[in-house]
Sequence to fold (213 residues):
Amino acid sequence: VGPKPMDALGTQYGNNGVPAANQVYVKRASTAHVFPTDFDSTGNNACSSTASPYIANCGYDGAKAALSHFYGTLNARNNAPAAAHYIEFDQTTFTSNPGMAATGWLYVPASCAAGSGGAACKLHVALHGCLQSTAAVGDKFVKNTGYTRWADTNNIVVLFPQAKVDNTSRPTAASGSLPNPNGCWDWVGWYGSSFAQRGGTQAAAIKAMVDHV
Fold:
């Protein structure tokens, strides 16, 4: 995937009324189709290679950039978040959408679990890309992207909803009838024309998870 879809996304945000000052668009010529980090993790691919799990040390901390944009200056990250803080939960209580997996993941820092930290905890939703669900890459998107490293020391709960492979061919908004063999989130209208709006079934499911947390 080259820059054209991201250029189009910027246009879409603008058309939806998002001010240009609220958008941060970083272009790095040496970065392939990956989630960029600034650390090495077992099983990740090279920054210049578009290959599973599509996470790479590119010398750029994508998770920090995203979280800083939303929440401002962050405390130093914890590079070894405790395994006990990762929680698998049942997604079927929130949706029957055939493109969503049976379970999702949540990261809850100790300070948030204990109700301490001096301030209310924040909640961040991190959506994996195509071919990045736990069924495809195990826990790599959950643990190797860096979200939890920053969340652990900044009172941020991170919700990792999970999409899944759906090989049923379904009519889409603009591309004819297609299956979803890569476990992508709905970006073409597999599950209704309102896929990009709050009324979309996947968007509504994620909102229900947020409300529950």
User: Anything to note?
Assistant: The chain has a mean pLDDT of 94. The beta strands are 35-37, 55-57, 86-90, 103-107, 122-125, 156-160, 166-171, 177-180. The longest strand covers residues 166-171.
